[in-house]
DNA sequence: TGATACTTGGAAAGCGCTTTCCATCTGCTG
DNA sequence: CAGCAGATGGAAAGCGCTTTCCAAGTATCA
């Protein structure tokens, strides 16, 4: 139904080839008068090139696929924003898929693990089918990648596709952006201990996610180096609710109640990411505990929404948008870079660290 | 480079037509044994259908385009999440574009207005070029649509594309999801006044956006009905920073300082959306003003991130994810529905309304 | 057993472009 | 003015599928 190139060519009185050369960038430029005629004809008919047909003919689609876990999570949406920016600049389109709804068939087969797994696989397969020029996996990788996923991506890469992951992966030839999760977690705890905190509890994310594991190891490492041991380690989802529930569980385990808490030094809850930390703060408030006087909280990522939170959340700042830009850049480049490393900085705000001494003194 | 259907057909010893019928849903199903042979061959070769070629042949792409302003904004990411969900269920892919980076050429020509305008136009044109089956415009519409945008979308619709907008539009034949912005704003203020508040200031969003205008009209309407007048109306961007700056300006105008504020009734700042409201709260804190004792704040949308905010923000809850799902559903349906209306509910939390009397009594 | 009606697999014509060749034409050089 | 390089427009062969016809095979019925 839409106008096609043939019609433009006919109206301009030139061949299909010439029209194509004029309208859709080619190495050959027809004479000025002809070019003009074609342009006018195209404008008059309202011609819009069919990208699908071009993709087929050129065997490159101008599409880049982005897989996130949950686009409504500030962590992922910040990264997506960065990806968008670069994609737009290089005139590529972004195909977005989330893995938090399961595989798509509605056949969510019990285990969350395999549901996410299959959702990721489904997303990747769709992208491969659409022949995206590159695929960015922004979701946290697993220690052991799904063999099917791995096989498909390997083949995809062999066929000229590029794959970028956040965090190490066992997928051969994928470009990886290493995030300083371990180091960051270590530095964060170090800074906190330096400020006088000694009692810690850890809210770890899903144990099968590399991101969660690295951060938790970093926490442990720093504590061990200072001869400290976490009072509790509770696992929860990478979500506000996950942080909320894990915190309640933690408080119950440690038998912390509003009254007699500020004994020596307040407990500091180390959450595996900011979203969990925010959930933790909500949980603490629900129990009438003050932050940071009674209990302190630290997160990880420094998601943009933290800007307006009160009290300010101490965290480890990752340049999320930059990570997105980097991923997109890596995804679009031919073969220059094979990877990159990103580190962040410790950011202490009111929720933990900065007021530790005053909390003690109170 | 990837395996193609011809190769599968050859290996299975059948024709191209048969292979196609077996692998990619057709109305005709070849005999069981043949089906099996083809399946095995496809599996063995690792065949993945080329969606571009299918799109060309079937003249339908299975793509739906989503235009948001800023995917990192919780309002848009919540909607996007809803769109995703429905798209996934119906095995469609989502093409995402943001308009907060300008048109893409980097030719951001001064005025924010036209930069956004052109970004939207660029996104829509790209979607049309990719022949998406539908386009969802989640960005707030303008009173007067860009004629070029309108013309292109009109043609797109005539060619069988579906267009869904959030809020009324002058684009002919677009399906629209009407959001109860005016009514919501009115109800929200009504509830606030009922709780004893009488001094209001308005943080309006960009004046050329329908969303902002409707909400502000709603605020005004409710105030007028109760013979009240806003003490100040300040325009700001639909962002945290916009709310922050507008608030500072507002405080300066009204000469509100930390000391003598709780005279009769605290000032209540009505922000055109939650993100601005959060920025407003941050601004108030930066001036040492307490919420809600000294100044109160109300927002609009009830974005998911509010869950963990303290003090809780009073707002008008819009079912954002549901709006996204609705938009996607409308976008995918043939012609059953031509639109839909969405309303929300007033939600009073600590930031305004609930503590008005106690604040007075203090 | 011959005629009629289904099934079923395959050949081939597109879907809307890009790009390789080719043919033609222009302008120079000797 | 013959001869050749370089420029320029067009014909046609794909790109990887879907789907319409067709022809051939299998039942069904009188």
From TrEMBL, chains A, B:
Pfam families hit by this protein: LacI (PF00356), Peripla_BP_3 (PF13377)
PROSITE patterns: HTH_LACI_1, HTH_LACI_2
Cited InterPro entries: HTH_LacI (IPR000843), LacI/GalR-like_sensor (IPR046335), Lambda_DNA-bd_dom_sf (IPR010982), Peripla_BP_I (IPR028082)
CDD domains recorded: HTH_LacI, PBP1_LacI_sugar_binding-like
Domain of life: Bacteria
Molecular function terms from GO: DNA-binding transcription factor activity; transcription cis-regulatory region binding
Keywords of this entry: DNA-binding, Transcription, Transcription regulation
Keyword field contains 4Fe-4S: no
This protein's name: LacI family transcriptional regulator
Annotated source species: Arthrobacter psychrochitiniphilus
């Amino acid at each position: 139904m839409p106008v096609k190139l043939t019609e433009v060519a006919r109206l301009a009185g030139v061949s299909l080839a010439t029209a194509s050369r004029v309208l859709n960038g080619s190495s050959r430029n027809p004479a000025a008068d002809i070019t003009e005629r074609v342009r006018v004809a195209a404008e008059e008919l309202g011609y819009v090139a069919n990208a699908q047909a071009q993709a087929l003919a050129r065997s490159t689609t101008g599409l880049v696929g982005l897989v996130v876990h949950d686009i409504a999570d500030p962590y992922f949406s910040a990264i997506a924003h960065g990806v968008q920016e670069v994609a737009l600049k290089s005139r590529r389109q972004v195909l977005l898929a989330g893995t938090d709804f399961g595989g798509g068939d509605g056949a969510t087969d019990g285990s969350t693990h395999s549901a996410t797994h299959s959702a990721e696989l489904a997303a990747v397969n769709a992208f491969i089918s659409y022949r995206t020029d590159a695929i960015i996996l922004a979701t946290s990788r697993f220690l052991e990648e799904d063999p099917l996923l791995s096989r498909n991506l390997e083949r995809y890469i062999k066929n000229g596709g590029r794959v970028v992951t956040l965090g190490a992966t066992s997928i051969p030839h994928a470009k990886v952006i290493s995030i300083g999760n371990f180091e960051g977690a270590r530095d964060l705890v170090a800074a906190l201990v330096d400020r006088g905190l000694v009692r810690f509890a850890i809210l770890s994310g899903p144990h099968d996610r590399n991101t969660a594991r690295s951060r938790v190891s970093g926490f442990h490492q720093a504590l061990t180096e200072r001869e400290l041991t976490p009072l509790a380690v509770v696992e929860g989802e990478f979500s506000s609710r996950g942080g909320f529930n894990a915190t309640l569980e933690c408080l119950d385990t440690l038998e912390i109640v509003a009254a007699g808490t500020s004994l020596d030094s307040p407990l500091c809850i180390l959450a595996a990411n900011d979203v969990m930390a925010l959930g933790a703060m909500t949980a603490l408030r629900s129990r009438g505990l003050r932050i940071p006087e009674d209990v302190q909280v630290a997160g990880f990522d420094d998601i943009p929404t933290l800007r307006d939170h009160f009290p300010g959340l101490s965290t480890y700042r990752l340049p999320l948008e930059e990570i997105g830009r980097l991923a997109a850049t890596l995804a679009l480049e031919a073969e220059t870079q094979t990877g990159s490393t990103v580190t962040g900085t410790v950011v202490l705000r009111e929720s933990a660290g900065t007021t530790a001494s005053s909390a003690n003194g109170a």
